[in-house]
TrEMBL record:
EC number from the UniProt entry: 2.7.13.3
Protein name, per record: histidine kinase
Key word Transferase present: yes
SUPFAM superfamilies from the UniProt entry: ATPase domain of HSP90 chaperone/DNA topoisomerase II/histidine kinase (SSF55874), Homodimeric domain of signal transducing histidine kinase (SSF47384)
InterPro entries per the UniProt record, alphabetical: HATPase_C_sf, HATPase_dom, His_kinase_dom, HisK_dim/P_dom, HisK_dim/P_sf, Sig_transdc_His_kin-like_C
GO molecular function: phosphorelay sensor kinase activity
Keywords: Kinase, Phosphoprotein, Transferase
One Pfam family it belongs to: HisKA
Organism: Kolteria novifilia
Histidine kinase domain ranges (all copies): 36-250
Classification lineage: Bacteria, Pseudomonadati, Planctomycetota, Planctomycetia, Kolteriales
UniProt keyword Manganese present: no
Reactions it catalyzes: ATP + protein L-histidine = ADP + protein N-phospho-L-histidine
Amino acid sequence: MARKTEDGHEQLGALIPKEQLEQLQRQANIGAVASSVAHEFNNILMTILNFAKIGARSKDPEVVNRSFDKILSASRRAAKITTGVLALAKNRSALKETSDVASLIEEVLSVVEKDLVKHRVHLKCEFGSRPTAEVVPSQIEQVLLNLIINARQAMDRGGDMTISLRHNQRSDMVEIAIKDSGVGIPPDQLQKIFEPFFSTKDGPDETGRGGSGLGLSICREIIERHHGRIRVESRVGRGTTFTLKLPRVAVDNGAQAA
Ligand SMILES: Nc1ncnc2c1ncn2[C@@H]1O[C@H](COP(=O)(O)OP(=O)(O)OP(=O)(O)O)[C@@H](O)[C@H]1O
Ligand SMILES: [Mg+2]
């Protein structure tokens, strides 16, 4: 069921400033993975509680040490997840920074990986190198989360997702590709998917199926603001690949934000 409400967009656009729409969309993204994050947090807390009890009861120094190790690594994992969630949810500074693009992907994955497991999505990362780009980190993370959630939603019964990263030497661009083995996009819809409010989803529900239809339009705006490109290739029944291209910036050349 495809719908497109240009009028709705104009009305909403007049009522809500663009930055706020972007912020709302960012929070909706977090909403889509919130239950998996809460569940994972609970698992981590249980681990910490259990090993705290074991350690406190034992007189054997080896058991006590092992318990502390388990508590330490569980706490570190919890801290990583909270940092990731906060980074994605907060409206942080809009200043560009020279950023390690692989780290941005990893931060998003630390939030979303349990959600992918829950939906039987098998994730593979292929990082050819770790290029840097001059970007607003929270905005690029928002784009990545959008594309990852879209890919997951396209694979109703699970499937394969590959995230690859490379530095294209010829164009000197950083290229991130997010490939899924989902339903694909019919050719007549390919031009429409970047339009605000175009969605084939039935609306938000407890399984996080989307969708306001704002995701890709905001992705495109953010990428254009970064002088980059967003491209899509898709085959119905086979899957879809979204490719982001961002101008690369060397770490040590002292380039400043535009
Ligand atoms: N990886 C994908 N595979 C198949 N179809 C996709 C994929 N990504 C996007 N689409 C199609 O493009 C449409 C628009 O995507 P967009 O992210 O803008 O909105 P949404 O996902 O429907 O809603 P929202 O992101 O606001 O929750 C989707 O409804 C879907 O039809
Ligand atoms: Mg979406």
